[in-house]
Amino acid sequence: MNTYQTPYTGNFKITSPFGERIHPISGKKSFHKGIDFSMPEGTKLFAPFPGRLTHHINRGGASVGFGNYVMLIGERENGDPLKLILAHLSAKRINNNENALKGSLIAFSGNSGSSTGAHLHLQMELWNNTAKEWIEFPPEDLIDFGEVG
């Protein structure tokens, strides 16, 4: 069941779904941990659930390709920790460690990091208390993307 609205308004095409794919830059088969949407730079992005926002300018590490990105950490209705990552941004809207209300403007889409053009990478993760790590899952499991194609 989809619980949350999209973090944007409008209807944008999915250019790379969650799961196995051929990476658009390396040309190698890899697992894509989120969904990419073709989206004009500067598109407003909103918090689909309340939480604490952290922002990052990528300088290395496992997510070096994200460019400018934000993480919104909140929880599901049942209390399980939930994380949303929005990547390849042009700008953020609210400050690091600031609380975001559902529907708050938090960032703007862009073309930063490893990117072939303006788009949004949207990734969702749930905390696995047994494994003590964040586990990625298909964002459409919780977000209603409506009629996208």
Low-pLDDT parts are none
Number of domains: 1
CATH architecture: Distorted Sandwich
What is the helix tally? 0
Q: SS-based structural class?
A: mainly beta
End-to-end CA span: 20 Å
**Fourth-level CATH superfamily:** Glucose Permease (Domain IIA)
Helix-residue proportion:
under 10%
CATH names the topology as: Glucose Permease (Domain IIA)
Beta-strand residue fraction: over 45%
Rg, rounded, reads 14 Å
How many β strands by DSSP? 15
What is the top-level CATH class? Answer: Mainly Beta
Q: Mean pLDDT, nearest integer?
A: 85
Globally, the shape reads globular
Main beta sheet strand tally, sense and closure: 8 strands, antiparallel
Summarize the helix and strand pattern as letters. EEEEEEEEEEEEEEE
Give an overview of the whole structure.
- The chain is an all-beta fold and 149 residues long.
- The chain has a single domain (13-144), classed as Glucose Permease (Domain IIA).
- It contains no helices and 15 strands.
- It has strands at 4-5, 14-16, 19-22, 29-32, 35-38, 44-46, 51-57, 68-75, 81-87, 89-92, 98-100, 105-109, 119-128, 133-137, 143-144.
- Strands 2, 5, 7, 8, 9, 11, 13 and 14 form an eight-stranded antiparallel beta sheet that branches. Strands 6-12-10 form a three-stranded antiparallel beta sheet, with no helix packed on it.
- The radius of gyration is 14 Å and the shape is globular.
- The protein starts with a strand and ends in a 5-residue tail after the last strand.
In a few lines, what is going on in this structure?
By secondary structure, the chain is an all-beta fold. The protein has strands at 4-5, 14-16, 19-22, 29-32, 35-38, 44-46, 51-57, 68-75, 81-87, 89-92, 98-100, 105-109, 119-128, 133-137, 143-144.
